[in-house]
Amino acid sequence: MSIPNAVTAPQSTPTTDVPLGIDPSNPHQLSASLYNEDLAPTAQKGRTWNAYSIFTLWANDVHSLGNYAFAIGLFALGMSGWQILGALGIGAILLFALLTLSGFMGEKTGVPFPVMSRIAFGITGAQLPALLRGAVAIAWFGIQTFLASQVLSVMVIALAPGAVSLRETSFLGLDVLGWICFVSLWILQLVIVSYGMEMIRKYEAFAGPVILVTFLALAVWMLFESGFNIALDTGTPRSGLDMWIGVFGAAALWVSIYGTFVLNFCDFTRGAISKQAIVRGNFFGIPLNMLFFGAIVVVLTGTQFSINGIIIDSPSDVVQAIPNTALLLLASGALLVLTIAVNLMANFVAPTYALNNLFPKHLNFRRAALISGVIGLVILPWNLYNSPEIINYFLGGLGALLGPLFGIIMADYWLVRRARINVVDLYRTSPNGTYYFTRGVNYRAVAALAISSIVALLLAFLPALHVVGPFAWFLGSGSGALVYLLLAKRQHDLADIDGEAIAVVAKH
């Protein structure tokens, strides 16, 4: 397999894992078990993710229906509008810092998350964090597709009331209309992803403004409906110590919602044109956009509460109350566009790269995306969604491990290696390679993950520790970083060698 579009060196042919001599066809000694066109670093020239591209990622993801349900829940728990904005503001500042540091890693190296993981865990050990991240994402991909199909079902019935009869027959836990809507959205997402990261970038760029305008319009409509009366609390707002615990706890939970994204943000920023683009995109997309999100939450929730004393569960409740069928369909369509955008970026990219990294000799981005989609279908995600045990214990348990992973990877990259990376060695199996460690595994990182995972799982599932539950991601991430720094080998080859010699022009 030759390196397509190599930019600064003769093309190389990755070989098997047998140590190489001097081979003119493979001067960089790349291994076919570690390198293919989709896992290769992206060349600096030809990158297309600018500040607007990164901003629209957040314009979509921040306004997900799950995030609205979380923030509206804070209002229901007695937090006032100002307290909710304060919690989201604190969380946004923390996320801006974390995601900028994570994004810089992708911009510098040009590699996706599974390859980035090789730096800390070794060329073989990196399969562990990649598969953990991918497993969480693939389950949520199926679940989010199912939730989107529910919105589509409502739209179909609004247009063709007779379609309600298709709900009378079910198969494998889902009615016929549900199957039709689910498979339709499943195919649509597979088609988008089959064209790679560039198509995802274009879809996010299209969806972002649609979402922002839709939610702004919903807020304005509710203001008129309520006579511009906004209830800023439910009548018994929190105060004193209880208020501060609630604010900081909510801020910590807001950060933990993005515990998956801070891990594999490099999957997107590997295509960033510069660090400045990441900073600008993150600034407008995180602190400013999250405060805009908070304002929408306060308006939608406060106006509805002022009208009839009812706290909505989601913006979907507002949409369903729109009296005009055409406007209802437009708003529902926008929510559908939003859910697909969030699903693509948060839950489809990670497992696609994880599978590609597992079988680089046989898979490319498109094939891996197809396999990810098939798995997301055969797990019958509606049954997962309806099972609290699976959501809480299986997905919750896997999710709890992502904090320690983040702490270990960030501590290794920024503190141990001081951002000095030999990118070419990430694709070599030579025992003398920087990231070979012991038979391809850095057992110090694995040990740190095992130890810190105990902390994370106890925090997630032990009732006696529920008081610190909101801070579980920070405690898990911090323990992962601390344990790794205590165990990490201090003498490393800190050669800083970019990957331009083996890079490809980004098309995925």
From TrEMBL:
Annotated source species: Glutamicibacter creatinolyticus
InterPro entries in the cross-refs: Pur-cyt_permease (IPR001248), Uracil/uridine/allantoin_perm (IPR045225)
Protein name, per record: ABC transporter permease
Transmembrane parts of this sequence: 84-105, 111-132, 139-164, 176-193, 205-224, 244-265, 286-307, 327-355, 367-384, 390-411, 445-465, 471-487
Main location: membrane
GO molecular function: nucleobase transmembrane transporter activity
Gene3D superfamilies the record matches: Hydantoin permease
One Gene Ontology CC term in the entry: plasma membrane
Membrane protein topology class: Multi-pass membrane protein
Keywords carried by this UniProt record: Membrane, Transmembrane, Transmembrane helix
Entry superkingdom: Bacteria
Compartments (UniProt record): Membrane
Signal peptide: none
Similarity annotation: Belongs to the purine-cytosine permease (2.A.39) family.
Entries under Pfam families matching the protein: Transp_cyt_pur (PF02133)
